Amino acid sequence: MENIIEIRNLEKFYGRFPALNGVNLTLKGSRIIGLCGPNGAGKTTLIKILTGLIRDYKGEILIKDEASSALSRRLISYQPDTSRLTKESTGYSMANYYKDMYPDFEMSVMEELFAKLNLDPRKPVGKMSKGMVEKFQLILTMSRRAEIYLFDEPIAGVDPAARDLIMETILTQYRKDALVVISTHLIRDVETILDEVIFINDGQVLLHRNCDELRSEKNMSIDELFREEYRCF
User: For residue 95, is it left (φ>0), alpha (ψ between -120 and 50) or beta?
Assistant: First the structure.
């Protein structure tokens, strides 16, 4: 399987604070990868650099063997950790925006997901609950037939039933040859769908391994390993 994202010697500092320091990663397609670490570990900074929201960094990023650019980043469908929707946004108004911005957006998929998740595409965000807004953002992300899906803490702050629904939707809707990266510190809720895991802390990658191999080698779950590694819960 070809390399989808290559990250070489990536550094990002906020003043003297190293948000990312010497990050090297090679990510291939047809797999779901957990980007795991406590709050402040560097997960969001890394994802924002990949999406082009942060541009002042050192190092090199290749997307499908090409230097990261506005064109290559169009291969990415991104769900941020905070809502970018306005109170007036509806499913149909956002569909019009997405159709203009992204050639891989599929209106039929969006309508299908709104029905599946029991949301009304005519209802504005201002009249939705927090859980409904999370589902709305998920629908927009998964209505694209992207080659890369990036999720920044997609299950933080939602109840367990909604977490299960979000994970099921990601698992059933993504392109099977795509790369999916899920940033989270809630390992237990995502572990069953992960092919690989990356542990990151203090801006540095601690490990990047196949989940089955890691469980077999350590004789513990990824969640247990995470808790032992960070001792933060």
Answer: alpha
Residue 83 has pLDDT above 60, yes or no: yes
CB 72 within 8 A of CB 84: no
Helix (H/G/I), strand (E/B), else coil: 127: helix
Mean pLDDT across 48-55: 94
Q: How would DSSP label each residue in 12-44?
A: EEETTEEEEEEEEEEEESSEEEEEE--TTSSHH
Element (H, E) at 67: strand 66-67
Domains of the chain with CATH codes: 3-230 (3.40.50.300)
pLDDT digits (tens, 9 = 90+) for 159-175: 787 888 889 999 999 98
Is it the case that residue 233 has pLDDT exceeding 70?
no
Burial class (CB in 10 A: 0-12, 13-18, 19+), 28: middle
Global confidence as pTM: 0.94
The whole-angstrom separation of Cα 158 and Cα 121 is: 21
Q: At what angle do helices 211-218 and 222-230 cross, to 10 degrees?
A: 70
